[in-house]
Design brief:
Shape: globular
Structural class: mainly alpha
Distance between the termini: 47 Å
Strand content: under 5%
Helix content: over 70%
Order of helices and strands: HHHHH
Largest sheet: none
Length: 171
């Protein structure tokens, strides 16, 4: 079926709405990262606080990754698929890069924890979980950078996303 002018106008309006919404989300996320940077990347802290600090980082990354994954998949599927919208793609990439900042914080927290208490099986699993979330975010970034029409990459994202979430649930 051939797109009509009304469908094209609706699609343009939809992408404009998402551009404004994603701009606001990016501004909020950037503000959070800027204000929390000293806390996210603390150099040292009391030993009694390190374990809680590492757990917080892992669960912040888990929540962040799930929210970013769902939002980016929705935007990609509804606004970017089959169209070239450079502003929306740039905003989506920025959103994913900011989530990678949270992943870097989680890795830093686990590193502090491991230096303080040594490695254990649970810390190895947690490190692998953080790396899996980071891989998922990197694949999302790749999908956004490569643009629409990459069906194999979309399928890979779906599979990796499901595996990461299932693996996290098993650990």
């Amino acid at each position: 079926s051939r797109p009509t002018l009304q469908n094209e106008a609706e699609a343009a309006g939809d992408s404009t709405t998402w551009t404004v919404a994603l701009s606001m989300v990016n501004a909020l996320f950037a503000g959070f990262l800027a204000l929390q940077a000293p806390r996210l990347f603390a150099a040292a802290m009391p030993a009694a606080r390190v374990a809680q600090y590492a757990r917080e980082g892992f669960f912040q990354l888990l929540c962040c990754t799930v929210l970013v994954y769902l939002l980016v998949k929705f935007i990609y599927g509804h606004c970017l698929m089959g169209r070239s919208l450079p502003t929306l793609r740039l905003l989506t990439c920025t959103f994913v890069v900011q989530a990678l900042g949270v992943a870097a914080s989680a890795l830093h927290r686990l590193w502090l924890y491991s230096n303080e208490f040594g490695m254990s099986v649970l810390r190895i699993y947690a490190s692998l979980g953080v790396l899996a979330f980071s891989l998922l975010l990197c694949l999302l970034l790749g999908a956004c950078l490569l643009g629409p029409g990459r069906r194999r990459l979309q399928a890979l994202l779906n599979v990796v996303g499901a595996l990461v979430l299932v693996a996290t649930g098993l650990v």
